[in-house]
Amino acid sequence: MVWGWYEWRRELVERVHPNAGHEAVARRECTVITQNVDDLHERAGSKDPIHLHGSLFAPRCSACGEAAPRSLNAEKSGVGGVGKGAVGIAGGTKAENGSPMGSAAAAGGAAGAGGAAGAGSAAGAGGTAVAGGAAGAGGVAASAVGRAGSPSAAGGEGSRTPPVCGYCGAAVRPGVVWFGEALPVAALEEAVTAAANADVLITVGTSGVVYPAAEIPQVTAKMGGAVIQVNPQPTPLDPFCVVNLRGPAAEVLPRIIS
Ligand SMILES: [Zn+2]
Known about the structure:
7 helices
């Protein structure tokens, strides 16, 4: 049942398109840290975003943790079609742990981002943090692209029964972080490192109350970097930011990210 529900959610996400905020972030070479479980940053063109709360597109074994083959997510070409701007899920995907989701922090960075004024850039309507700097910030565990598993493990398109692990035979589970579960260690460490090294971090749409994600912009601030916040409302992160821009990510980010 759980597997089927996530398959349904994944299919819904596939019909949604990145918004102007995702696209603005993707134009910038920066590290993207997101609490969203969708793949809108990837589709907008951002390279290896760090998924703090996992991804609907990275199923893994419930027993041994091995990443399931991407083929389990059988890409259905054509899905999504046109429909630019389809709103809905885009910015506000809820975090699996029930948080309001949404926040992006982008840190412009010494190295990569290069930009003058700095804005690294982040966008993500939903919860994303972009940290510029670290050139590639490498892929996270969440970006697992089919390594393990045998083809026969695939449940097949449309299957509502969880496929089984190609290594140990246990059921494959959705690659998202469920309420009460710890965040993926590798992703969190990578995010904190990027934040600590960022000259500029833009936090977007996050509530600023879900820890440890809310700690990330504070890491940048404590290490001497500048934090810019984009959010329609005030948040507990306001005091840590050098600038607080009130508004939705899809409107604000395209204007501050060149
Ligand atoms: Zn396994």
